[in-house]
């Protein structure tokens, strides 16, 4: 049977500087979704990349005495190293300087011009260079950029415009008919009121700098960076370049996952571009919140950033991924602190999950010679534990369908927490002392099965976990017991050899952090 397809994208980041944990969050969240979908039987395409054109990059390169291409090449290599370090399983990395991308952007621009959706006029307005965005007078916030509150420059030039305004009614109808398209709902409401204020035509070319894709029929213009950037989602699939088998298979995208700062571009400009091109629209745009520091939003241009490499070296990739995904609630902002990270890792990973595995494996070695025995009839708290574990995959599925990764993880950790409590309630050490072998076997079997369940469910978020846990549970070579389909209670066979292994998540001393 053919697997259903699933296409998910991250924003393509500006190589204006190295990336911080805010970007890592978007990418790791998309990666976890991609891994989850692969695990649950989908044929997945997961795209990330870099958005390399524009005045900001041109200026940064000049300041470094490099050509823009030399400058971006080095930074983009750094992006790829970071994704490798964080175990990001992307299928393709698109650069807007790729030839395959240029061809498509020019083709689209030409088509929109020929069909009358792009026209030439005089532009007068305000430009925010760090945000790469034009504003009209009335959009400014007390004379400054409404997005980043920095100074804007007055620009007046001949430009091409995209007849966005023509599509406002169609856009509104689409949004009403597709209430799930923009998530969360707060973002959807913002976009609706933005369009209700009146949609102006969009200035889609510049002549004041050069580092961009040339307008094919008027090469003193370069294509406005957002039209260039958004096109990546289809150019990477081979749209408009001959072999369009990937495009046919994966477009429209199931999810564009982006930060709330760029929801407007993804939910207004992009769908309208696609409407004008008569192409299908993506199914969902999810706008997540921001990682903040006490000093405000973490941002490359402000320089108040946390380097994900440093965290991964210090705490391990799985711990960093877990923290980022568990701690930021869907759609809301979160304050980053290393103390919060250490507390999460200590509580959820060292105390709850790691301890469950190590105490269970120790008891299995000690009381059963490391060979798991068949369970007897359930009694006492068994049913509650088993029900919770058995109902967890469907709850995780429900949260994942909304891209609510924090609650998916919370659901898994509820089962982990219940299993630790179960061990306290059933006290296998007393059962061993009292020679109640059948009951002891049942209890230890149940926790082993819980460890298998929770490890499978947690694996999209923490990709190194299975490789470290399966040898301890004795099922390293039994892929049939590691799959999502194997989440059926009591699939783990008796006779499995359990071997206590390394400590998965050593406790971190909070005091050592204070001394740094
Ligand atoms: O906007 N917290 O690129 P960019 C959470 N090139 N997420 C954050 C964040 C924070 N503090 N800071 C950044 C661009 N992000 C365009 C995108 S897409 C066709 C073009 C994440 O390098 C978040 O996903 O400025 C945000 O949307 C993205 O990085 C912006 O990255």
Automatic annotation (TrEMBL):
Gene3D superfamilies in UniProt: 2.170.220.10, HUPs, Isoleucyl-tRNA Synthetase, Domain 1
Coarse class of the protein's main subcellular location: cytoplasm
Residues annotated as domain Methionyl/Leucyl tRNA synthetase: 7-151, 154-360
Reaction it catalyzes: tRNA(Met) + L-methionine + ATP = L-methionyl-tRNA(Met) + AMP + diphosphate
Cofactor binding, per record: Binds 1 zinc ion per subunit.
Binding site for Zn(2+): 128, 131, 145, 148
GO-annotated cellular components: cytoplasm
Domain of life from the UniProt record: Bacteria
Compartment(s) where it occurs, according to its Swiss-Prot or TrEMBL record: Cytoplasm
Function of the molecule: Is required not only for elongation of protein synthesis but also for the initiation of all mRNA translation through initiator tRNA(fMet) aminoacylation.
NCBIfam families: metG (TIGR00398), PRK12267.1 (NF008900)
Record-given protein name: Methionine--tRNA ligase
